[in-house]
């Protein structure tokens, strides 16, 4: 039984409309998001929240050794103002009472950076998970920080 051309056309239009949201969502992913930015977080490894729960929480939940508490906007404000690359690099190599890598030498820089961004967001910062460019900036700051530490010895 052959369908009328108008019914076939309507059927195809409905399918096209049903697929439109999927196509738009995929387009946003490829373009880097709704804003069209080219920020693409580095893939692989643990999420920032997972690292926070497994490593950072031990100190940042209670404020051990003056660690800024998770979600405390006032305590994090000055740290967030330092910038994502600077704060992350300093914490990565160890700062104040915090050991390098938060005490977990198995963490990658990307994982550690995600955790730092996760905590900054919880305190009102607008940090995103790091992309390749941010990781390069963090590495640059890490080198500068290590030179400063070496000079003080």
Structure report:
The chain has 153 residues and is mostly helical. The chain has 2 domains: 1-34; 48-152, Cytochrome Bc1 Complex, Chain D, domain 2 (Orthogonal Bundle). 62% of the residues lie in helices and 0% in strands. It is built from 6 helices and no strands. The chain has helices spanning 5-31, 48-60, 73-82, 84-93, 109-122, 132-152. Helix 4 (84-93) crosses helix 5. The chain is globular, with a radius of gyration of 23 Å. The termini are far apart. One of its GO terms (molecular function) is heme binding. Residues 1-27 form the signal peptide. InterPro entries: Cyt_c-like_dom (IPR009056), Cyt_c-like_dom_sf (IPR036909), Cyt_CIE (IPR002323). Residues 46-119 form the Cytochrome c domain. This is Cytochrome c5 family protein.
Write the layout of secondary structure elements.
Blueprint: H1 5-31, H2 48-60, H3 73-82, H4 84-93, H5 109-122, H6 132-152
Helix pairs in contact: 2-5, 3-4, 4-5, 4-6
Task: Give me some keywords for this one.
single chain, 153 residues, mainly alpha, Cytochrome Bc1 Complex, Chain D, domain 2, 0% strand, iron, transport, heme binding, Cyt_c-like_dom_sf
- Please outline the major beta sheet: none
The helix-strand sequence is: HHHHHH
Low-confidence spans: 16-36
Judged by helices, strands and strand pairing, the structural class is: mainly alpha
Question: How much strand content do the residues show?
Answer: under 5%
* CATH 4th-level superfamily of the largest domain: Cytochrome c-like domain
Mean pLDDT: 83
Rg over C-alpha atoms, rounded to the nearest angstrom:
23 Å
**Counting H and I runs of at least 4 residues, what is the number of helices?**
6
